[in-house]
Structures are given as C-alpha cells and as structure tokens.
Amino acid sequence: MSDWTYTVSVRSLCEFTAKCGDLDRRFTPSATALEGQAGQLAVYARRSPGYQIELPLEGRWGALRVRGRADGYEADVNRLEEIKTIRGPLELVPDNRRALHWAQLETYGALLAADRDLAELELALVYVDADTQHETVLRQTLTAAALQAAFEARCRAFEAWAAQEAAHRSARDAALADLPFPLGELRPGQRLLAEAVYRAAARSQCLLAQAPTGIGKTLGTLYPLLRAMPTQGLDKLGYMTCKGTGRIAAMDALQAVHRTCPGLPLRVLTLVAKEQACEHPDKACHGAACPLASGFYDRLPAARSEAVATAWLDPAAQRRIALAHGVCPYYLGQELLRWADVVVGDVHHAFDPHGQLYGLALAQGWKLALLVDEAHNLIDRTREMYSASLSLAEVQAAAQAAPVSLRGPLRGLAAELVRTGRQQPADYQPLPTVPDALAEALQRANAALGEYVQAHPLDVGPVLQFYFTCLGLQRLLDRLDRHALCDLQRSRARRPAPEAAAADGPTNLSLLDGADDEAAQDLLLSVRCIVPGHFLKERFETLAHVTLFSATLGPADYPRQLLGLPDTTAWLDVPAPFNPEHLTVQVADALSTRYEHRQASLNALVDLLAGQFAEHPGNYLAFFSSFEYLEQAAQRLALRHPELPQWSQGRAMGEAARRGFLDRFVPGGRGIGFAVLGGAFAEGVDLPGTRLIGAFIATLGLPPVSPLQEQVRERLDALFGADHGYADLVPGLQKVVQAAGRVLRSVDDRGWVWLLDRRYRRPDVQALLPAWWHIT
C-alpha cells in the first residue's frame, strides 16, 4: 500500500512494543478512575504556579503519527511527569508494568524534547497512593538524542503492524461501502429498521427500535451499521446481547455476510466468559502457577498475528490459536479487542462499571457503535451491575475465617449491622442514609481488608472476594442518590426461606414467626439501583451510536428515562409482518389470577386449557407467575384431564434438561408445556410452524406485592410522575408480549394466545399490548 498514514496513541504504541514477560493477574489493589483523577489533582496542587497539565504532544516518524497528553511539565526545572495512582506500596506494581510506565514517559519525553528543542529532560514517574495521597517519585535525566533513539526504536517495532492495519482498514471500508444484503432483498419491516439504523448512525444519534419477531432484526440492524462504518468513520461495532442465544444469532448473521462476500476483510471476535475459556481453572493467573501465563507477552505477538490473519475469531478459533502459541485463550481474546472490527458479547462488556469494551474505547478514543439485542432486558441487567449487598451471615463467616488482624474490624461491622437491625421497626426498612456508626464500621473494615490484601497479595484466598463485596458496597454508598434505594432486610439465616409469594400476591418479609433468637436471624444491607441511567447517561453520550432493539420496548419514555438515553434519541415502532387473522387472541373474562383468587379459579383455568386443546389439538406453552402456581395448575390438570400430555419446567434445569423440554415440541406434536413467565422458555425460544400453535398466559407478569416493591414504585413516581406503570405494569406486560411472541415465528404460522385474567380488558393494560392484536 502506498501513501498511508497511521495515527496511534502513545499508550497504544507502548503497550504494543514495551509489554513483555508473564501475564500476572494476581490482585494488586488498583485505584478507580475517580481516585486516579483525585490523585492527579493532589499532585497538581503541590506543583508551582507555572506547572502545565494535560500537555498535548504529537510527533511523526515516517508514516506514523504519534500523539497523546502528558500529565504534567514543570518548565522551571525542565521536568516531565507521568502520574499513576495506586493503592499500597510501590512494590506491588509488577516490574513489567513499571517498565510500561517508563516507556510511556520516555515517549512523551521524546515528543516534548523535539517540540521545544530541548537538549535533555528530567523524567519523573510519580506514584500516588489513593488513600494517603503520598507521592513516591522515580527520576532519571535523559538526553534528547537518547529519547529520540528510544522513540524511533518503538516506531520501527510498530511500523510493519501499522502498515498492515492501515491496509486492513482501507480494504475493510472499501468492501463495506459496497456490501450487498446477504439475503438478496430486505423484507418490508426489515427495510424500515435498516433505514432507521443507518439514518441514526449518520446523525450520531441513539435509536430505540421496537420490531416484532419475524422481520429479521439481527441482519436488519447489523447490515446497515456495517454499511455505516466507512461513511461514519466507525472504528468498531459491538453487538451486545442480554442472553447467550443472541450471540448465536449474531454470529449466524455475520456468517451470512461472509458467505455473500467471500474474502470480506472483516475481523469478528466473540467474547466469552473467563470460566468458559480457562484451560487451567485449578491454577492462578500468573506465570509461576499457569504455563499459559508464563511468558504470555513474549509469545503474544505471534499469536496476535495469526489471529488477525484468521479474522473469524469465534471461541473455537481463539482456543486453537492460543494453545498453538502457548498463551491463555481468554486473555488472548481480551488483547484482540484492540484489533477486531466487530465484537459480539454480553452487555456487561459495554455497560458494566468495569466493562472492557467500553473502557478500551474510552482510553483509545475509538468511535464505537453498539447494537443491543433484546434490549428490554437491559434495565434489569444494568440495575444488577450497579447494585450491591452485604449480609450479616457473610460478615460473620468472614470474621470467623479471617486472620487475627481482621477479626476486630469485621466483628465490629457485624455488631453495627446487628445494632442497626435492632433499631428498625420492620423486617424491611428503607434507609435514607446509612447510620454513621455503621458507615464508619464499614470503612474501618474496608481499610483493614485493604491493608491485609496489600501486605499478602499472594495469599489472600477468600478474603479477597469478601473485600471486593465490601468495597463494591462502599463505592455505591458513596454515590447514593435518588437513583437508588438503600435498605436493611431481616430474614431467617439458618433455614431456607419459604418461596416468595407469587406475582400479584402478598410477600411476607417477616420470616421470624415471632422468634427473638438473634442468632437465627440474618440481615441484608443493600444498595439497589432503580434508575441505571444515573450511571449510563455519560456512556450513551460518549458512544458514536447506539441502537437498542427488541420486540417489546415501549412505551418509548420507559427505556429512555430509566436508561438515561439522550433527549434526541429516535423511536421506531416497526409494523408486524403477520396477518392479524393468523393469531387469535382471547381474554378469559371469567378468570382472575390474583393471588387471593387462584385456588378458586384453578378448576376453571385448567378446564379452559383442556377445552382449547380439544378444539385445536397441538403443542402449547402455558406460562405462570411462579413455580408454585405452575405446579398447582399442572397437578390440577393431571387430576381433571389425565389424558392430556403435559411436561413442566423444573426449578433448577441444566442445559440438557432445558433441551429435553424443548425437544418435546416436535412438528405435529400434541401436549402442553408448563413454564414460568420471564424464565428460560418465555423468550429467545424459536418453535416455528406446528412445533408450537398456542400459548396460555395466566398472569399479568406483575412483581410480588412487598414493602420493597412499594419503595421502588414510590421512587419511580417521585422521579417520573405517577401512573406510568414503570414499577410493575410496563415490565410485566413486556414479559407477557415476549411469551406470546413464541407463537408466530414466520408469516405463514397460525396460532392462539389466551390471556387468562379479566384485567386484560382494562384500557391501561390493552394500551401496552401490540396494536395489531385483535383481542376477542
């Protein structure tokens, strides 16, 4: 390739050329991004008035354009500084990481010396302790010639790779600009979706797309965004899924793209969980313990070169390449994030506080666009990511197993939890603020745990996980605001809690039955994220484009407000491709599935199931709000209609059992499968044709009535106004529509949906059901 240029950050250049030695994932206490900023500010405050911060620097070497921002320069003493915030003593920073820090500082030094025509320069590597703000400074003075020689050596080491990457980007963009649609012609609804995605990407706008099953959402979103990559200068495309089945669909769609365009220069990477990729789960992640961590960075270049040449990097390919070169498959995949064009993985990679894909995009300045499949699940998934809890039983167990030096602080934390529990009037108690004594006890425990893991980095065992739990809770408490609830919940600790009451029924959080035996009680201190948009708003504003799509997203304000999407976010509701006459939707007006009415209505409910089956024999799914309700209905059906074949979802089904459940749905088969609404068989299940001809939904999907649920409703009402249904009706009916969506999977399918509750006649309920349903 002639006439090329390649822009690389100082950080990327040094990570590529200066990393060597072992992979070492042993715990070294690290500072958060906020603590890093605080550390920098503390250093800046101690410098002279003429101290220059965030100094932009840039240099050229051949076709390479190298740029970055140096932390600080003090012209009076001709000193350039690189500031790194750490926790604990400097000895905990591995040698190869310190070497990388020096490489970055030396590269900034070369750029500064060339820019200002300096003969020499003092370099200072400043390590700041996040807790004490104490500085440890390492210094050396180098000539401009020495700095330039080191800079040129790094550029030479990177030049061939940069030329290859520039050629790849040019070929990729040229191919994508003329990419044909893999299936020849887009379907009508699919075309609407594709056009909306492309238009939103061109405007750097977020899009909420509600699109029914059957229009081809996966290709309808992937194809236009692939076409937008060259026109919008996108570096990467992330296809994020809330469930594993979505990743399979994405990879199948990308395979179709490759079949249409053989030789397409597009690198596709699937991210997998560490537990799935680890070859030696019994070994620690460092060179002294695991052979695939020993010399990892020395063998990485060859593995990386083979991987980018392979391009199709599913888990099997990653494993094959990694083992051929003697490196860890999981961490090879993490390294390949930098060089992939399309990344397929779980939503946590983009939305978790420590999500690797988003973190790298921010650090490297990538233009990253995201597609989020089954996005109706994103609210609950991100709520989990930004919530934390700590139980009295956990603290007591940790104190009992802890070294002597930790027992005092941990027992103190346990005592304050017990004291707080005694003072609360109910078994569930919201806490506007954590009592000072409890907050201080948690801080003391965290400080002691931090000191211990710093002093014993190679021998922390279960202490480390408990430290992470406490630290996560502390960080959320420090940011507690109206977006979250803090509460204390009392329950039995020494016996299994009874099953929570089913949806629409009362939940009794008092599990003590009048007992005063504190030893038999457990307490759970929680921070529960209610509005994840508090944390996600900045991400949506930073990303180049995001499309969130699902068959059940509406009403539009629900995801927009709870996820913190920009006000400019576009909304698309794609018309269903089905003939409304193909789906018969009926309401059982005589039935109530409220908790207090269930026993009385059970005979009528199972008789309705049997009547529908007798009139239209075939395979059906019947959805219930809990396993308890499911089991009652299955037993009653077996009693009153023993001739009707049935099978049920179990409480803890493994993959083989789930597959066996679905295998009962054969073409032309007959029977009823009982399942829980919102569970494994209520979405992401494809049973086309006569494998499934109908569904019964014996619930509105509402969450259990409880003091906690009431707090959630009150908080959402306070933030967004009353009567929106955000706490219960909207998410409940999303589950209902998802479950009903199992019935029609193609335009030729026909089927029945029974809504088994008279409340489905209410206008506010019907307003949240698909407009194309003709309810009788």
Number of helices: 26
- Sheet with the most strands, sense and barrel status: 8 strands, parallel
Mean pLDDT: 91
Helix content: 40-55%
Q: How many discrete structural domains? A: 4
Query: In the CATH classification, which architecture of the largest domain applies?
Result: 3-Layer(aba) Sandwich
Mass-distribution shape: globular
What is the percentage of strand-forming residues? 15-25%
Structure explained in plain terms:
Pfam families: DEAD_2 (PF06733), Helicase_C_2 (PF13307). Its EC number is 3.6.4.12. This is ATP-dependent DNA helicase. This protein is of the alpha/beta class. The chain folds into 4 domains: 6-161, Lambda Exonuclease, Chain A; 190-248 and 347-386 and 532-577, Rossmann fold (3-Layer(aba) Sandwich); 389-529, no CATH class; 580-766, Rossmann fold (3-Layer(aba) Sandwich), CATH 3.40.50.300. The strands form 4 sheets. The protein has an 8-stranded parallel sheet, with helices on both faces. Strands 1, 2, 3, 4, 5 and 6 form a 6-stranded mixed sheet that branches. Strands 19-24-23-20-22-21 form a 6-stranded parallel sheet, with helices on both faces. The longest helix is centred in the N-terminal third of the chain and has 34 residues, at 144-177. The termini are far apart. The relative contact order is 0.09.
